[in-house]
Every structure is written in C-alpha cells, then in structure tokens.
Write a structure and sequence with these properties.
The chain is of the alpha+beta class. The protein has one helix at about 1-35, and strands at about 40-45, 45-55, 55-60, 70-75, 85-95, 105-110, 115-120.
Length: about 120
C-alpha cells in the first residue's frame, strides 16, 4: 500500500513539473513575439476590407465589416525596414458598382513591440 501511495505521489509531481515547464515555454514564446510590430486595422467606412498587403505579408480573406477591427501580427520581421512601409488595402464597397475599385494605399511607420493603427473612414 505504501509503495502505491508513493508511486502515485511521484507521478503527480512529475506531471505537475511537465505542465509547469510547458507553461513556461509558452510565456517565453509570447515575450519573443511581443517584440515584433503589429498592425491594427479599424474599419469605420461603409466597406468590407478583403485583404491587407505590405512587404513580406499578405493577409487575405479578412471580410472586415464596418465598425470591426483586427490586429495583425508582423512576426516575420520587416524586410524593408520600419519607416515608410507601403500598405495596400483591398475592399468592397457596400454600394454595388461596376467600375474597378483601386486599393487604399498608405505609408506607415512601425516600431518593435508597438501597434501601428490604420483607421479607414
């Protein structure tokens, strides 16, 4: 009986240490990705944002409706640097049109660990 209790306690302690180790690695992973910049898109216009493209990234199938927002992780770094990064936003207006719809183009500055916000009005 005493051996069974001792083995149960040992197994419990081992499983607890495995769980705590895996949680620590998740914390470290979060800290590493927090050093990268993020891009927040806020849609205040009467459009649906379909995709966002900037150097090294393409975020497709967003379907971001009016009054919605999203934060995009730029965790692959910024290959062209952090200043004057061209961002292209493709969208669909709520009103039906037969003419070609050019993307919204803008240049933004980014910083490590910071959220850069683009608001579409």
């Amino acid at each position: 009986m005493n051996k069974t209790i001792a083995i149960s306690i040992l197994l419990f302690l081992l499983s607890f240490s495995v769980i705590s180790c895996s949680n620590n690695s998740d914390i470290n992973k979060t800290k590493e990705t927090d050093n990268f910049p993020k891009l927040q898109i806020i849609n205040n216009a009467q459009i649906t944002i379909l995709n966002v493209v900037l150097e090294g990234y393409e975020f497709s199938d967003l379907n971001l409706k009016q009054t919605q927002s999203i934060i995009l992780d730029l965790n692959n770094g910024m290959p062209g640097g952090y200043k004057d990064v061209q961002v292209s936003v493709r969208y669909r207006p709520y009103r039906v049109t037969n003419s070609a719809i050019p993307p919204i183009l803008t240049k933004l500055d980014f910083a490590d660990g910071k959220i850069t916000t683009l608001t579409i009005n």
